[in-house]
Design brief:
This protein has 22 helices and 25 strands. By secondary structure, the chain is an alpha/beta fold. Helix 2 crosses helix 3.
């Protein structure tokens, strides 16, 4: 049998399996991340399922290691509550990347089986463990049953000949493989690695290469353990591990020989990991930002390489360098070795441990047009933001951050590149089209009576939407955090008028809490009083706001959906249902001037 066949057989009721056999296999370690973890729990609860073995069940919160996204934070807390009830161990946001914790913490070992909601769980191939990323239902089933079905993949054998050049990193090795096999030539295969060059690879090297099996479509890259890996796993598990090797007469679908002396320092060009180019062809391309980290290159060896290049150097002016160690243990080791100080002295931002860059919620997102060079494993369009992402080794990323453009450590210039001015934001008065519409100082609309004191800006426009800059997009979120009015934006009509109580708009200075109402056409807000900053923001945005005495509502018998008229100059409110009127605050001279101008600006 091949390695994968032996591992599957050892975890099933079969003594022998072959390619394409569908087998129910026991899973040694069953993991859900903060990404997908809440859905795993929901699947269990909704189907009345319980945990088969809590000692083999884990949460790893690594997708949003800062806990800065409120949806992630809600999912994380939901999982924490479930974990407490079921005695499940959590590696929380302070711990780091779950797959690396598994390798270093003895949760996975050579010959073991490991599944996670992480598509890069096949990184376990670095220690010759069967790791697999699976969906929410698969993980829930494995948590409840302890096993899951799997189709035994065909195996391919790669023999590597020759010796690697000194300037070829493990990341270069992986990118050269992508150049050979692309995104799908290894699709669905278990791939075994052999040769003297493979035997000399460190655990860190193997982790980097194994983590990019997914980008080549492979089920897993399996590295027969060398002495370093064996010793590492014996120490992490506290026991001597029986190593699994393929049989001499194992059957492979194909055996491919690859000469590593042909490998070159490589980049993945923006858009696809398999869109590769030798670094020498891309030298000189200006960058905006750089990232060192991810499950591919966040090991202590990667950080040492970066620190060696960054020491006594500075990140180029205007370039942002973000460094994210893979685990908290690696972070602490970097601290004790002085690497963190080197990074800070160079001008880098060092995050707490966790995933980085290659998905929303992680450290390392980029903006429209931003050019990033990263040690990550994915650079699909839009995955890391709206910019462009190159993939490269830690050495090339560190050198490029110093240079301000893509380069190698040997070609770092004495003077870094600077950004040229593009006049991106310059406008002439002729280009600016001023709106000439005359605003009426008498408005009519249907009433929303929301008589609640102290409605704050988070109730009006929650902070999870603060990244929105287009007013057209803001209206849909108006009041969606105000209990009982979550559907306000769907029901409100242009010209509607909101009447509320004391201290409306308390809280933050966010302009969006005003602009969201303008977005959906609310014509006026009347309150007994306004938060001081909110009042200024509304006046400056030409959103009519006025104060009133609470008895006005009673005097003119205002009810929900009544149509009212407001004379902004005279300060008169009229209920058109019964033609009763009352005095309220009127516009002052500043309000009139700003309102007629269409806003402060």
């Amino acid at each position: 049998m091949t390695i994968i066949e032996k591992i599957i057989a050892n975890h099933s009721k079969q003594t022998k399996v072959k390619a394409n056999d569908i087998i129910d296999i026991v899973i040694d370690s069953r993991v859900a991340r903060d990404f997908g973890g809440a859905n795993v729990v929901k699947n269990l609860v909704d189907n009345g399922l319980t945990i088969a073995d809590a000692s083999r069940t884990f949460f790893t919160f690594d997708c949003n290691p800062t806990g800065s996204d409120q949806k992630y934070a809600a999912n994380q807390q939901f999982c924490r509550q479930y974990a407490r009830e079921n005695d499940i161990k959590i590696y929380d946001i302070d711990a780091g990347i779950g797959t690396h914790i598994a390798i270093d913490g003895g949760i996975a070992w050579p010959g073991s089986t490991f599944i996670s909601t992480d598509s890069h769980a096949n990184i376990m191939g670095a220690i010759c463990s069967f790791g697999q990323g699976m969906g929410d239902q698969d993980i829930a089933a494995a948590w409840a049953k302890g096993s899951i079905w799997f189709k035994t993949p065909e195996s391919i054998k790669l023999n590597f000949t020759g010796n690697l050049n000194k300037n070829i990193s493990a990341k270069d090795f992986a990118l050269n493989l992508l150049n050979i096999f692309g995104a799908n030539k290894l699709l669905g295969f278990a791939v075994e690695f052999y040769g003297d060059a493979i035997d000399r690879l460190t655990l860190s090297d193997r982790v980097t290469i194994a983590s990019m099996a997914t980008e080549m479509g492979a089920i897993i890259f399996l590295f027969p353990p060398n002495k370093e890996v064996t010793n590492h796993c014996n120490k992490s598990t506290g026991k001597k591990i029986a190593i699994i090797f393929a049989d001499d007469d194992a059957k492979y679908l194909d055996t491919i020989n690859i000469d590593v002396t042909t490998f070159k320092p490589m980049l993945a060009l923006p858009g696809h990991p398999h869109n590769n180019s030798p670094v020498e062809k891309e030298i000189g391309k200006k960058i905006d930002s750089a990232i060192i980290g991810s499950c591919t290159n966040g090991r202590i060896e990667d950080l040492r390489i970066a620190a060696n290049i960054l020491k006594n150097n500075k990140v180029a002016p205007g370039v942002v360098l973000k460094i994210v160690p893979a685990t908290n243990d690696i972070w602490n080791k970097a601290l004790s070795e002085g690497l963190i100080q080197i990074f800070k002295d160079a001008g880098a931002m060092v995050s707490n441990a966790g995933c980085s860059g290659c998905a929303a919620g992680q450290v390392g997102q980029n903006g429209p047009g931003e050019v990033t060079i990263s040690t990550g494993n994915r650079n699909f369009e839009g995955k890391q933001g709206k910019g462009f992402v190159y993939l490269a080794s830690p050495a090339i990323v560190a050198a490029s951050a110093i240079a301000g453009f893509i380069t190698t450590p040997e070609k770092i210039p004495s003077v870094p590149a600077i950004f040229n001015k593009t006049n991106l934001f310059s406008k002439t008065k002729e280009k600016i089209k001023l709106k000439k519409d005359v605003k009426s100082l008498i408005i009519e609309g249907k009433v929303w009576l929301i008589l609640i004191d102290n409605i704050d800006t988070d109730m009006i426009f929650h902070n999870r939407y603060l990244a929105i800059t287009d007013i057209k997009e803001m209206g849909q979120y108006s009041f969606d955090n105000l209990k009982g009015y979550e559907d306000f934006a769907k029901k409100a009509k242009p010209t509607d008028i909101v009447i509320t109580s004391k201290n409306f708009g308390a809280g933050s200075s966010r302009q969006q809490a005003v602009d969201c109402f303008k977005s959906i056409g609310i014509s006026c807000i009347i309150a007994e009083s306004f938060g001081a900053i909110y009042e200024r923001n509304a006046i400056n945005a030409a959103l009519p706001i006025l104060t009133y005495n609470s008895k006005v509502i009673r005097d003119i018998e205002i009810k929900n959906n009544d149509t009212i008229r407001i004379d902004l100059i005279e300060g008169i409110i009229t209920n058109l249902k019964n033609n009763k009127s009352a005095k309220i605050q009127k516009f002052n001279d500043v309000q009139i001037a700003i309102y007629k101008n269409g806003g402060l600006l």
